[in-house]
Design brief:
alpha+beta, 6-stranded antiparallel β-sheet, two-stranded antiparallel ribbon
Length: 171
């Protein structure tokens, strides 16, 4: 069975367009140097002296460099975002790093007591959840260290105080 010439032409056009559109979807920058530069810039760079094949090779090379740089930048941004989420949410349940948190209390420390809230210079707020007590202490903005324990438990220790209190992060 012989296909009419118009049908063959139509099929070829559809296949060509689908190949071109999938290639274009993978590109991060559309067009070539001639489309991206003004005519004066193109001539000033000496690109008007290149043959069509040389210009095509240069465009393909440049496109590869742009795609690589874009991929690297996206991966770096993704990792930075992931790290920001981990740092920002440390201490909430078992999320984030289990490294100790070292900071300074905002304001005065007057001892431990169940239910007390402790605001750190880094913006985190922790609440004491156990009955540990320290009374008669007054320290202005002391250094603190919050360390993880087993099963998502965190302990706060104030510099110069031997007692540590079980805490949970509330903000």
């Amino acid at each position: 069975m012989k296909l009419p010439r118009l049908a063959v032409l139509f099929a070829f056009t559809v296949l060509s367009l689908s190949a071109v559109s999938s290639a274009q979807a993978q590109r991060t920058v559309t067009g070539n140097l001639q489309q991206q530069m003004s005519e004066a810039e193109f001539k000033a760079a000496g690109l008007d002296k290149l043959s069509a094949a040389e210009l095509s090779t240069l465009n393909n090379w440049l496109q590869g460099k742009v795609e690589h740089a874009t991929t690297v930048a996206l991966e770096q941004a993704r990792e930075e975002g992931r790290q920001e989420v981990i740092v920002k949410n440390r201490g909430f349940y078992s999320f984030g790093s289990n490294d100790p948190i070292e900071s300074r209390l905002s304001g005065e420390f007057t001892g431990f007591g169940k239910g007390r809230q402790f605001t750190l210079d880094n913006g985190q707020v922790w609440e004491q959840t156990d009955d540990a007590r320290v009374a008669g202490v007054r320290k202005q903005a002391p250094d603190i260290r919050i360390t993880p324990g087993l099963m998502g438990v965190w302990y706060m220790q104030v510099d110069g105080i031997n007692t540590r209190a079980k805490v949970r992060r509330t903000k």
